[in-house]
Amino acid sequence: xxxxxxxxxxxxxxxxxxxxxxxxxxxxxxxxxxxxxxxxxxxxxxxxxxxxxxxxxxxxxxxxxxxxxxxxxxxxxxxxxxxxxxxxxxxxxxxxxxxxxxxxxxxxxxxxxxxxxxxxxxxxxxxxxxxxxxxxxxxxxxxxxxxxx
Length: 149
Ligand code: ZN
What we know:
Blueprint: H1 3-16, E1 29-35, E2 40-48, E3 54-62, H2 65-78, H3 83-97, H4 104-110, H5 126-140, E4 145-147
Parallel strand pairs: 1-4
Antiparallel strand pairs: 1-2, 2-3
The site of zinc ion has 8 residues, from helix 2.
């Protein structure tokens, strides 16, 4: 399977059966993300466990297939990670989505997330795919609103 086919099948799978969609009452962190270029709007909710890693994470909102799939993938990727690990992950994923070069070791760290590199071939969708990652960063920084603009 080519990377492009894999990209399509992963995006479709997460779009059709989104993981971790919903809300968390009294989350430790929460932010609203907005991508006016496409009309994507989402919320992220994060709760930490006592050991300082993500115990629960949810996303909710409306967006295009790429944004929804990327949100679903994002929530699966941050579970049981520390805040610092999430910031590092977001930084790499954002570069990957934009088509910026990553070292082989950085790609190893990303594992299955490397399929998101497929988005870089569709510049109009880059902001859609980036939105959930920007939103969780903003939430963990204690801010309330993220925008791709
Ligand atoms: Zn979109």
